[in-house]
Amino acid sequence: MSTISTSYEKRAFSSVMPFLCRLGISTWIGILVVVLLISAAIFALFLAPYDPAEQDIFKQLMPPSSENWFGTDNFGRDIFSRLLWGARYSLTIGLLAIAAATIIGSLIGMLAGYLGGRTDIICMQIMDVVLAFPSLILGLALVALMGATLTNIIIAIAFTAIPAFARIARAAVLTQRDREYVQAGRSMGFSGPRILFRHILPAILPEVMVMTSLWMATAVRTEASLAFIGLGLAPPTPTWGGMVREGFDNILNAFHLALFPSLAILLLVLAFNLIGDGLRDAIDPRLKDAS
């Protein structure tokens, strides 16, 4: 009995990672960019040449130079240093929000798909109600109600992403729950949680990973948008969206204030999209051939 059980578990887990071998060069470029940006955020304390909050009235709106690589803002603060420290907040918000949404949303979708019946109907109707609101508008309303703190911004972004993960997990579970290895597990007396988390979860994990990478880009954009309209972390805390907003007021005479944080947001969003597209193509190469 244990030998048969082990063989079915190996079959379920064998579908988790093989697609990584089929990742294209663009996907690895995206992974490299994300790793570099995360590393820069982690080591910002050592990489930043200046204190991000240090003001110098004699260096206001200075253009890029050898002393200040990306120039200075209207308070004389070094933009390069603020970008590095801003990456900490922007990436922390995005990573924690999507991690929470992935776990909660996938759990809801897996339970709804596996149990079916009334549980499935209730869960999906609730998710449909949340999906009826645009993610940015819903996030804006939640932050405005709860207050613009780090924790509240993470909760708001996570809440807007949960339905997407619930739906993708439910759809994946529906395609797996009647497979032979699941039926075999039931016939051997495996419990529902064991089948769901040790057999079905590894099989649907690649699809969830694709959704996670794509929604990371959405989370970064949402955080930047909230900061741009004044619902981000309070100054002088540096965030990329807040830096774009500060630079917008001086766009005509000091365009570099908004240029560099905008490029940082663009680079990170593009990297996550490259990763998501590459993972999607690796899961189903027919999608790549069709395109």
Automatic annotation (TrEMBL):
Any GO BP: transmembrane transport
Keyword annotations: Cell membrane, Membrane, Peptide transport, Protein transport, Transmembrane, Transmembrane helix, Transport
Compartments it resides in: Cell membrane
Top-level lineage group: Bacteria
Membrane topology value: Multi-pass membrane protein
CDD domains named in the record: TM_PBP2
One GO cellular component term noted in the UniProt record for this chain: plasma membrane
Family under the similarity heading: Belongs to the binding-protein-dependent transport system permease family.
Purpose of the protein: Probably part of an ABC transporter complex that could be involved in peptide import. Probably responsible for the translocation of the substrate across the membrane.
Protein name per Swiss-Prot or TrEMBL: Peptide/nickel transport system permease protein
